[in-house]
Structures are given as C-alpha cells and as structure tokens.
Write a structure and sequence with these properties.
The complex is a heterodimer.
Chain A: H1 2-6, H2 11-40, H3 44-53, H4 55-88, H5 94-106, H6 109-120, H7 128-134, H8 136-147, H9 152-163, H10 171-182, H11 185-197, H12 200-207, H13 212-241, H14 244-250, H15 260-269, H16 273-301
Helix pairs in contact in A: 2-16, 3-16, 4-10, 4-11, 4-13, 4-15, 6-10, 6-14, 8-9, 10-13, 10-14, 11-13, 12-13, 13-16, 15-16
Chain B: H1 2-24, H2 28-35, H3 38-71, H4 77-83, H5 86-89, H6 92-103, H7 110-124, H8 128-140, H9 146-171, H10 175-182, H11 187-216, H12 219-225, H13 235-244, H14 248-280
Helix pairs in contact in B: 1-14, 3-9, 3-11, 6-9, 6-12, 7-8, 9-11, 9-12, 10-11, 11-14, 13-14
The chains are: A mainly alpha, B mainly alpha.
Chain lengths: 309, 281
C-alpha cells in the first residue's frame, strides 16, 4: 500500500481530475450526440418518420449504401493484399509504399474530390466528350447485348451509361471519390497487426508443404480476423459518412446524386432542421454501432485493436 | 504485388498527378497572382492559426482525459473511453450541424454564451477587435465566427491526442516515480519533472496529427463558420468556391499548395511516430 501512496495523488485531487475529465467529455462529446436526437425529435415522431421515408431521403440512403457496397469490398481486398505485401516481404521502397497508403488520411477531403474533377470534369483530362468517343466500342457492344431478348434487361442500364458516360455530377464520381477517401482504412489496421505477428507460422506452414492460398485461409486470416473486421467497419463508417469529397463531385442533384450526408446539408440549408437531424440520427446510430463494435472486438481479441486514424 | 501497385497508382497516384499537372500548366505569374491575393492570405492565416490553436487546446484537454482514463478507476470509465473516438466515427456533416445547433444563439451552450457576451458588451462597452468579437458573440452565440471554427476543429482533433498519448502513458513504469518519491519529490514535482518530459514526444505527435487533420477539415466547419470571405472562410472552402465559379486553375493551385504542406506534415508525423515506437520498445 505504501507504493500506491507515493505514485498516485491524494483523494481530493483525484476526484477533481476525474470530475474535470467527465465534464470535458460530457460537454464536448456526449452533448452533441444527445443534441442530434433531441433536435430530430423536436417536432415529434411524425415529422421524424416522414423525413426518413420521403423519396429524396430514400434515394439518398440507397446511393449511400451503393457507394459503400462498392468501395468497402474493393478497399478490403486492397487492404489485405497491401498489408500482406508490406509485412511478409522485404523490398526496396517498402517504407515509401507504406507512406503512400497513408496518403488519403493526410489529404483534405475537398482535394480528394477535386482530383477527380481535374480528370473527368468538363475541363479535365478526360472530359465527357472524350470519354464518349473512347467508350464508343464498349457502348456499341453493350447496346447489342441489351437488344438481345434473353438477358437484354441486364445490360440496359450499362448501355445507357456507356452511350452518355458521366462521371462528375453523377453516381460514378461519388463512388470513386468514396473509394479514394476510404482507401487506407483496412490496410492501416492490418499492417501493425501483421507486423507484430511476424511470419513464423506461415514459414512453418511452407515447410509442411502448404500452398499460398491455403496458408492465407488457414493461418493468416484467422490471425488477423478481428483487426480485419474492425478495419472493414471503420472503412464502412467513413464510406457512408463522407461529406467533403462527395460534395465536390456530386453536384447536389436531389433524388439523384445526393448521399445521406449531402441530403442532410441540403435540408439544413433549406432550414428544414428537424428533417436534417432526423437523417443525421441514422448516421449517428452508425457511429455508435461502429464504436460499440470496436469495444467488442477489443474484448474478444484481448488486446487493443485501435490503430491510429 | 502487381495488384497492390496497380490499384494504388490508379486510385491515388494518377489523380494526384493530374492535380499537380493542372496547377503546373499555369504560368509563374498566375501562380503568384493567385497565392498572394488577399482572400487567400486571409484564409491561410485563419486556417493555420485556428488549427494550431485547436490542436493546442486538444493537447491540454487530451492530457487531462488520458491521465484520468489511464490512472484512475471510476464507474463509467469504459464507456467514456469508447466515447473518445466519437469524432472519428461521427460523419463530419452530422458533427457540423450538431455543433452549430449547440453553440448557436438558440443552443444549449450558445444561448448562455450569447447572454454572457451581451452582458460584457453592455457593462464595459469594449472597443476595437475585442469589441467586434464580443458583438458577434452577443448576436450569434459561439457560431458563425472564428470561435465556431475553433470549436469544430477542437472537436475533430481531440481523439488524435488521446489515442497517441494513451499507449505511452500505459507503458510508463511506476519505478521512476517511486524513485523520485523516495528522493523526497512531491507529487507535482514528480509530474512536472519526471512524467511530463516522458510524454512530450507523444504530445507533439498528437498535436501534429490533430493539426494536420484540422487544416483539411471541411464538413464540420462549413456549417458553423458563417463562411464570410476574408473573415471566416477556411482554405478547403475557398477551393470549393473557386470550383463553383469554374476557376479550375486557381482551385488546383490552392489545392497543390495545401497538398505540399500535407506531405511535409505526413513526413514529420512518420518521423515522430518512428521515434515514439522506439521509445515504447
């Protein structure tokens, strides 16, 4: 007990510090969370539910889910292969590669949107007209496929897009901007984890005659599954919540190119505060779910899964 | 390996190159004209000044919160620990409208703040820059001013400091504190002379991370900032407004400048983190 006395503070000091920390966290972090729900329900449940079920809100939710459904699997695949590459092999430029993976974290979301406007925008490298010419053969092929009786329906959307390929101010732009922004999340979680595990087990498996895929499925994947899950959750949360980058490429066309965060902005700027906050509750729930899963993953894996973001 | 490099080039490198090439396409004179325009200088000063101030406040509050979370036991600690990550997980647009609602004139905190500002204004009639600020606060609460931007940037940067500091503080052995105590040092002296110096590298890293994030922040700021050119316009917003006027070249130049600063910060962060890892070993 004597040890404890000299390496901690007296009880009043402890209480004051704990109280101060609770006030900081409560006022600064918890209050905003409560405010989202309080503002959303200010005008009652009916307004709340109506704002979530109107057409523009539903199409925004749909687009948000679509962008996440494409960018999360892509970046998960990339994250696993990149983490595998930089932790299991040693090569020149490895440290540089790790820095490059981190790059989107350091870039303003606005710039992440801007780069795509520079490529596909009206004054970019590949403006819509050039793209139309480039994609003409593919468009013809798709039109031919769409005209067939049996599977025609499957290709109609593709053919229509290829005939008039729009990226900026359209859904594809929103998707690529989201891919750019969520690019590092999975890799960032996996690299420190796989680095600390080393490759002893994989090497043992090789000597026992296991092939590359088998080693991955039977040894590497079980070892990294919690970190991978957390990385995917973070990636998803960001994909659904991204604002700055998609804002630059979307053009804010209501019911067409508005994701949920953009829809919130439009409602807010139209002074429909209750509706804006009603939609914000969905994203607040997503945030709470992500934080809850993080705690759960940390408990299950028995160590801190939290990387630096 | 091929897949990793190809994907990285396609998604990150080629788009960034496109931006730089677009910016480089403008002549030197145009660059200079864009970069020294008063609006950009004002936005740059505002963005960097407030980001540094916000990161500085995050360091102080982050040190307090981390200390309490690491060293003391109390009910609800686990939940508070999890809540620290809220600004990471909460989409920036949601943070933006919520902070505006709280700190605006009608808000839970903003209404009291506006009342206090009104009282100061009517009692002392302050003049000059301070009087101008107090006037804005009395009219709008803490929102729609540089104070609002500062609040949003602090909210966004806070978790970076806690999450950088936490592992370092957890690994701090109690032996040196005991040694210091046996030599007759008081608790405050031990903190100031023994513990704090060991935390400085982590505090600097946390500051830099929060600062780097704050410079590029857009979503949480634009709702609370008021967005007045020369006064409450941050750099990312300036890029967007150039783009909306179809001034692609100017947007590319500002973005390139910001990118170069981001790269330098990323480089510094990498160096700092390598030092931290070495210290933790």
């Amino acid at each position: 007990m004597a040890n404890l006395q000299v390496t901690t503070e007296s009880k009043p000091v402890r209480l004051i510090l704990i109280l101060a920390a609770i006030i900081v966290l409560g006022l600064f972090l918890l209050l905003p969370l409560f405010a989202v729900f309080a503002e959303a329900l200010r005008r009652g449940w009916e307004v709340f539910l109506a704002s979530l079920t109107e057409d523009a809100a539903l199409s925004a939710i749909k687009l948000t889910l679509l962008a996440a459904a494409i960018s999360v699997p892509l970046n998960t695949l990339f994250g696993v292969s990149a983490a595998w590459l930089v932790t299991k092999y040693r090569f020149k430029g490895r440290a540089f590669l790790i820095s490059l993976i981190d790059l989107p974290f350091a870039i303003s979301p606005v710039i992440a949107g801007l780069v795509w406007v520079m490529i596909f925008g009206a004054k970019g490298w590949l403006p819509p007209e050039t793209l139309t010419n480039l994609l003409a053969p593919a468009a013809n092929l798709a039109a031919w496929a769409a005209s067939s009786d049996r599977f025609g329906g499957l290709f109609e959307g593709l053919a229509a897009w290829l005939a008039n390929p729009k990226i900026i101010f359209a859904t594809p732009g929103i998707i690529i901007a989201t891919v750019f922004i969520t690019f590092p999340f999975v890799a960032r979680e996996l690299i420190p984890l796989m680095e600390s595990q080393g490759s002893d087990q994989e090497e043992a498996a090789v000597t026992l005659g296991a092939g590359g895929w088998r080693i991955f499925w039977r040894i590497t994947l079980p070892n990294i599954k919690w970190g991978l899950l957390y990385g995917v959750l973070l990636c998803n949360a960001r994909a659904m919540g991204e604002f700055g980058a998609v804002s630059v490429v979307s053009g804010h066309i209501r019911g067409k190119t508005n994701t949920l965060p953009l829809h919130i902005e439009v409602l807010y700027n139209e002074y429909q505060f209750s509706a804006a906050f009603a939609c914000a509750t969905l994203l607040a729930f997503l945030a709470l779910f992500t934080l809850g899963m993080k705690s759960l993953v940390e408990q299950l894996s028995g160590h801190s899964a939290a990387g630096k973001h | 390996m091929g897949f990793t490099i190809a994907y990285l080039s396609l998604i990150i490198l080629i788009p960034l190159a496109a931006l730089f090439i677009k910016a480089a396409g403008l002549g030197w004179e145009e660059w200079k004209a864009i970069l020294v325009s008063p609006r950009i200088i004002a936005a740059t000063r505002l963005t960097f000044g407030l980001s540094a101030a916000a990161a500085g406040v995050s360091v102080v509050t982050g040190l307090l919160v981390t200390w309490v979370l690491v060293r003391y036991e109390f009910p609800g600690k686990r939940m508070l620990d999890a809540m620290v990550d809220l600004p990471f997980a909460l989409p920036t647009a949601v943070a933006g409208i919520t902070l505006t609602a709280i700190y605006g004139k009608e808000g839970w905190i903003g209404s009291h703040f506006a009342a206090a500002a009104t009282w100061v204004k009517e009692t002392w009639h302050p003049a000059g820059w301070i009087g101008e600020q107090i006037n804005t606060w009395a009219n709008f609460g803490a929102a729609y001013s540089s104070l609002g931007i500062f609040i949003a940037l602090t909210f966004i940067g806070f978790p970076f400091v806690v999450r950088t500091l936490q592992p370092v503080m957890e690994d701090l052995g109690k032996e040196i504190e005991e040694a210091a105590a046996t030599l007759g040092a008081g608790r405050w002296t031990v903190f100031r002379r023994v513990i704090l110096p060991l935390l400085v590298p982590a505090l600097i890293t946390g500051f830099t991370l929060a600062f780097a994030r704050a410079i590029g922040e857009y979503g949480s700021v634009i709702f609370i900032s008021g967005n007045l050119p020369m006064k409450t316009e941050i750099l990312p917003l300036l890029i967007v407004s150039q783009l909306e006027q179809f001034k692609y070249g100017a947007a590319a130049v500002i973005a390139s400048g910001m990118l170069i600063i981001s790269f330098v910060l990323l480089f510094i962060i990498n160096l700092l983190q390598r030092r931290l890892d070495w210290q933790n070993r």
